[in-house]
What we know:
The protein contains six helices and twelve strands. The protein is α+β, with helices and mostly antiparallel strands.
Amino acid sequence: MRLMSLVAATVTVIAATGxxxxxxxxxxxxxxxxxxxxxxxxxxxxxxxxxSQFGANLPARVYSVTQGPSRxxxxxxxxxxxxxxxxxxxxxxxxxxxxxxxxxxxxxPGYSRADFIGAPLYAIWQFTQRDARxxxxxxxxxYGVGGQQLHLTNRDGSRTVAAIYxxxxxxxxxxxxxxxxxxxxxxxxxxxxxxxxxxxxxxYPSLYHHAFPPPPRARTESN
Length: 223
């Protein structure tokens, strides 16, 4: 019922604002970051850094589009160098510092594995520090990759729907914000899909979680 209501509300907004709005949405593909997602226009790509829980400055890209008062973005953080960065830092730790003891157990050098495994939780925590009210936090998955979805009401009444996934050493943070009275941007979130190294769509018949060995892949039907 919720999905049907959302679709109906979306159709209402498109009808009220004219056919141009519907025509602006495109399927965008990033071969660099191996994902595809629908945006209301060609996204601007910004190179940036993302500071992880344990202080590693990781390379990241932000794909963003602003459509009137609405904003849509996908931030992709490369966790590939996390062990190298925190491992190097661990070499200069004070004697006896527990986090820098060479990666005993599951923590990894300089807590690098703990940082990677906990990346989605840390990203969620950052959302909760905003001047907004968290109204829902749920498990979600897309093409077999498990993640989390957040719904927030901002101080000005606008609504933000965010989703966080980790796939093959990358963390993907999707964020859509729309004004008060607009349908929540859930359809933006659900358009996210994965690409392999050749740009083909992939899915996982069983749940993918970055803390465990990946299950076998399958091609998506569209490919």
